[in-house]
Amino acid sequence: MPTAAPDSRPLHAVLGSGPAGTALARELARRGHPVRLVDRRGEGPAPDGVRRYAADVATADGARAATAGAAVVYHCVNVAYQLQADVMPGVQKAVLAAVEESGARLVVLDTLYPYGETGGAVMTEETPWRATTRKGRMRAELDDRYLAAHREGRARVVLGRSADFVGPGVLNSSLGGAVFPGALTGGEVLGLGDIDLPHSYTAIDDVAVALAILGERPEGDGRVWHLPTALAVSTREILAMIEKRVGRPLEVVVLGEPRPFGPFDEVFMAEYAEMFYQHTEPQIMDSSAFERTFGVRPTPLEQTVDATVGWYEQWLSGR
């Protein structure tokens, strides 16, 4: 049987070109899918096999254009932290309307925010949604709407939840631009809250692989999945892994409460204050359901740390 031409395969549209969207676009292209990577500018380098596209998916026309002709749409859009509660509901409305109209499947990258404070209990897909913060309630409301759209047959939707990102290209994370540059240059390294508590971090490449699987496997639709995430260890243990990799002790500055530090300015930290509980109680995410169902294991943390240090070395040398 002849092999189909590459451009005859169903299009996958990735909305959002941050670390997750870019890693996902690269992974989809690696799997042989035609990929459209969408952001408001449509500029900059693109992974091989990926076409960049400019659209504002917070508008009905922009979302419709961004998703036109796509069989699968991946919602990886994010905005400035202080704007999330105001902007993300509008993005959802536009994107959900677009896929309801086109019939495309929708894969949504999600957070742990809907669970709220758990007292350190392990978070599974069965954990109740008890968020009390503004952003946590907003995320829970969005997720309710996504799942309702699926139940009611208006759209085919699946949600993939991730813990804090870590990995190549990840800057704006508690284990990102406030940690690795200082580790490599002898500068200060940020630790938030109680760094001896277990805390889950999800490798950005595991996010990409798992979202691609959800895009290819419609049997996962209609529910929330926890994306593959390595077993939680303390942030102090991860800092020790970084020390071993860079060959020097780290100058760790531990913030017991949110205040500006490095890339996290006063505006960000003021907005982040309500979420600071994530660093004063254990944050333990269980992804075993996804691992069993789809046969995927998370990348070992040591390997992720190694790759991240290597990426930051190159990033710093090119600045």
Describe what you observe in this structure.
The chain is an alpha/beta fold and 319 residues long. It has a domain at 10-167 and 203-229: NAD(P)-binding Rossmann-like Domain (Rossmann fold, 3-Layer(aba) Sandwich), CATH 3.40.50.720. It has helices spanning 19-30, 60-67, 84-102, 134-151, 180-185, 204-216, 235-246, 266-272, 288-294, 301-317; strands at 11-15, 35-39, 50-54, 70-75, 105-110, 156-161, 164-166, 188-192, 198-199, 201-203, 224-226, 233-234, 251-255. β1, α1 (19-30) and β2 (35-39) form a beta-alpha-beta unit. The longest helix is centred in the N-terminal third of the chain and has 19 residues, at 84-102. The model is unreliable at 1-6 (pLDDT under 50).
Parts with pLDDT < 50 across at least 5 consecutive residues? 1-6
What is the overall pLDDT average?
A: 95
> What is the third-level CATH name, the topology of the domain at 10-167 and 203-229?
Rossmann fold
- Going by CATH, the architecture of the domain at 10-167 and 203-229 would be 3-Layer(aba) Sandwich
Q: Cα-atom Rg, whole angstroms?
A: 19 Å
What is the 3D shape? globular
Number of E-type strands: 13
User: What are the secondary-structure elements, in order, as H or E?
Assistant: EHEEHEHEHEEHEEEHEEHEHHH
Structure class: alpha/beta
- Helix run count: 10
Major β-sheet annotation: 7 strands, parallel
Distance between the termini: 50 Å
The level 1 CATH classification of the domain at 10-167 and 203-229 is: Alpha Beta
Strand content: 15-25%
Please state how the strands of the largest beta sheet are arranged side by side: 3-2-1-4-5-6-11
In CATH terms, the superfamily of the domain at 10-167 and 203-229 is NAD(P)-binding Rossmann-like Domain
Portion of residues in helices? 25-40%
